[in-house]
Amino acid sequence: MQSIQWDPSFSVGIAKLDDDHKKLIQLINSLYEAWNLGKDGLVIGSLFDALQVYTDSHFQREEAVLLALEYDRMPQQQHAHACLVGALQNFRTRYLAGGQATKPTAEMNAFLRSWLLDHILTEDLMYRALLASPESLALFDPYRLDL
């Protein structure tokens, strides 16, 4: 499993949301590392839990920003978020069945990679121009960290 590296082209224009994306990358990379090191179900479960909690808080933060800006693709963004959360929960359940973490499959690796990168590079980058608009800048300083 190849780790995911942050690239400045992933930036959406608000530092806190970018920091969230960096943290999500870190959590996924930690999950990869734990699998590669053969960590037990408790460790894997804790990492899945941390990923789930941080994902939920990120999506809430991101959706609050987009709602304030009346983002026209908000229903699609919320649907994508709900699907991603559901899929993450499903994988957690499947891979920790019976308290034993199984080795990740190509499906799981592809899911985690695409879950984050495809979502950022498709869904999230669609709103980057909106975040750079004068209306957005009046509401949200792109360098604020307290969203």
UniProtKB/TrEMBL annotation:
InterPro entries for the chain: Hemerythrin, Hemerythrin-like, Hemerythrin-like_sf, Hemerythrin_metal-bd
Domain named Hemerythrin-like: residues: 13-127
GO molecular function: metal ion binding
CDD domains linked to this entry: Hemerythrin (cd12107)
Keywords of the record: Iron, Metal-binding
One family name in Pfam for this protein: Hemerythrin
Gene3D superfamilies according to UniProt: Hemerythrin-like (1.20.120.50)
Family, similarity comment: Belongs to the hemerythrin family.
NCBIfam families with a match to the protein in the record: bact_hemeryth, hemeryth_dom
Name listed for the protein in its UniProt record: Hemerythrin
Species annotation: Paramagnetospirillum kuznetsovii
